[in-house]
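Supplementary Note 3. Input sequence used for the single-chain structure prediction.
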Amino acid sequence: MKIISYNVNGIRSALSKGLAEWIAQGDYDIICFQETKAEQDQIDGSVFESLGYPYQYWNSAEKKGYSGTLTLSKKPAVFVSKDSGLPHYDREGRILRTDFSSFTLLNCYFPSGTSGDERQGFKMLFLQEFHEYIQTLKKEKSNIIIVGDYNIAHNEIDIHDPKGNKNSTGFLPEEREWMTQWFGSGFIDAFRMLHPERIQYSWWSFRAASRSKNKGWRIDYQSVSERLKDSIKSAEQLNDAVHSDHCPVMVEYDLSF
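The predicted structure, written as discrete structure tokens, is reproduced below.
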């Protein structure tokens, strides 16, 4: 089973850049999009249905053209929730839960903090409250996969210029410490588990030809609960996909759903 996580920076924009054609060339079981910036009625669902994804679960932000998550699946979820119990994040469509027969999947778009101190504070509160939410969920579900744009580069290997970005949101010491605690609390970084020394990024600024120069950050992850660790078969950043300032993150699991 293959799961894709992809911040598309606007689903309508990505579709105009060949996203559907790219999906058609792959063989993915579940695709999780972040930053959709759209309502469900703004997209022709038959586009994804024709690609083999009849099950389309949306969590759009209340604010038009902002944030939002979408999970496409070849098979139906047995449970779907847009309600994390954290209304200030649910209003922004940041957490979308879908349960399948053998695992629980969360498609998440973490706040970025790039627009100033207020949103950085919002991001840090999100990190704290999200961690608490997951710890509670773990008491109910033990097989959990949490994919999405975490908006944090964990270690120096995950960013092209660690010294120059030491004071940049997304690489602040307190954010990196949260990631260390996160991956010490019963979750595995699927990509880094299989590729401990590989330098590969998932996001590049639109400025200064950053992508062509590969001046990027790895801020998109698939976190896997310890009990599913042995099910991870492969993990890749699909750098050739260019529908967004991010690229897809693909993990293959030995799981049924």
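The first strand starts at residue 2 and ends at 7. The chain has a mean pLDDT of 97.
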